[in-house]
Amino acid sequence: MRKTWTSVVVGSVLWACMGAWAADVPHWSYAGEDGPAEWARLTPENATCAGRNQSPINLVGFIHAQLKPIHFAYQAGGTEILNNGHTVQVNYAPGSSITLDGTVFELKQFHFHAPSENQIRGKSYALEGHLVHADKDGNLAVVAVMFREGAANKALAKIWPLMPTEAGAKMALPQAFAAAGLLPANRAYYRFSGSLTTPPCSEGVRWLVMKAPVSASAEQIEAFTHVMHHPNNRPVQAVNGRTVLE
Ligand SMILES: [Zn+2]
């Protein structure tokens, strides 16, 4: 059966959520024989990992575009936290969204990478959060938040102690978590077109990178890297003909 683009992308989100449990999902990793340089060759479904509009990137050469504010309509909806071996992720209940280009994108989940995947003017951050949204047709919009080392992060403090240490484990959150607490007060952002940063690297993802970083303590950053056992950032990819708007 021929897959539609929508089913591929929606499948990708599920894949990102459930990779550790799905027996038919090919293995990939962040280093070595099945590391990022090999992803495109691991399976035909991953061919897009060698595409021309890949994420992450080093954000430079900004084009002034007077971007309209992103309208955030988030509720406390984080319901469970899981470790899928590639990241630590919080799944979100329906009812929270952003509006972008007049389209509503619902928040599905958020997860983390350490060190950051995207770079801003060549600068890497200790941690990067990805808030993954989908519209009704399965188009994706990711809000990225950079964390620099500094004061402890109050929002992370609510979920970090519940982070499952074993790949494949998940835990219900005792209280619905409010993802708005992860966002910087200043919501100015950079925008570019990119991809999922994990196989199958599907393109057409709207990337919205918050300009202002938030902070996390050295202990909070260490807690995440300790649970992951290894860096979980894909290297920056070629920008090719793309522009980064601000
Ligand atoms: Zn991510």
Question: What report would you give on this structure?
Answer:
This protein has 246 residues and is α/β, with parallel strands linked by helices. The chain has one domain (5-245): Carbonic Anhydrase II. 14% of the residues lie in helices and 34% in strands. It contains four helices and 15 strands. It has helices at 5-18, 39-42, 154-159, 218-228, and strands at 58-59, 62-63, 71-73, 76-83, 88-92, 97-100, 103-113, 119-120, 127-134, 140-149, 170-178, 189-195, 203-210, 214-216, 244-245. The strands form three sheets. Strands 3, 4, 5, 6, 7, 9, 10, 11, 12, 13 and 14 form an eleven-stranded mixed β-sheet that branches. The chain has a two-stranded parallel sheet with strand order 1-8. Residues 111, 113, 130, 197 line the site of zinc ion (ZN). It is an enzyme of class 4 (lyase). Reversible hydration of carbon dioxide. It catalyses: hydrogencarbonate + H(+) = CO2 + H2O.
Question: What's the gist of this structure?
Answer:
This protein is α/β, with parallel strands linked by helices and 246 residues long. It has helices at 5-18, 39-42, 154-159, 218-228; strands spanning 58-59, 62-63, 71-73, 76-83, 88-92, 97-100, 103-113, 119-120, 127-134, 140-149, 170-178, 189-195, 203-210, 214-216, 244-245. Helices cover 14% and strands 34% of the residues.
